[in-house]
Amino acid sequence: MRKGIKTLMVLGRLSWLAFLVVLVADFFADLPMAWGWTAIGLALGARFLAVRLAAAGPSRPPEEPVEVDPPVAGRWTALNSPASKIPSHGTRIYGQAYAIDIVADPQDRTRPPFAWLWPLVRRNSAFPAFGEPLLACADATVVRVSDRQRDHLSRNSLPALLYLFFEGAFRDLAAPAGVVGNHVVLDLGDGTFAVYAHLRRGSAAVRAGDRVRAGQHIADCGNSGNSTEPHLHFQLMDGPDPDTARAVPFTWRAVGVPANGETFSVPAPDDRVEEGRPYRA
Fold this sequence. Notes:
InterPro entries: Cell_wall_metabolism_enzyme, Dup_hybrid_motif, M23ase_b-sheet_dom. By secondary structure, this protein is an alpha+beta fold.
């Protein structure tokens, strides 16, 4: 089944690429646009079938979330949380039905608010999440590391957000890596994999094949991929490839799953003296 899903996802991207080729070539030659519309139809149909095929397969029930450690330390706020809606990001593709976004929200520093018109963009250094260390959520094996994509400027104004939607369509052509940006995938065992997305360029502190311990620094928070501002996108799934994996629900030890807008605090790994210590702010 996973092979069939992967084939459909690749077919969908190739069909979108074919449409773009026809669109550009039409400026230089009188090509029938029927070829372009056929390519769009194939792209949409392949994506639809891939999503339906993934949904038809067995998956863990949401009543059985996997408990892991929080992937950060300090004070953070949740966005796009599965505690508020499922699928949390409005889609089930890339195994992200139960994904969560979190932004650093320290008491001594203000996170820049969303701007309707100005400033159009901000530098990443303006956001407290940028460069914050990300921690292994469990003892695990590193199966995938990517940290060569650039960290772009913020997209947290209305004009920039509209541009992000347009840009995202092209990022999707580059497979999941274009959407998640720099990322690390951990094999937690028992068929569960954790994804850390939108990491800072060049910040990976681990390599594929490494064994890591819970609380170990693995990378830094960044703003790569399809991202509005520096933040961590975290999710669990049942395979290492987001193209074919299904979402797995999670809960963070002593935190749970914070809802949209909910702030929580996590002590540094050395300060987590006992399981069950309250982390919530």
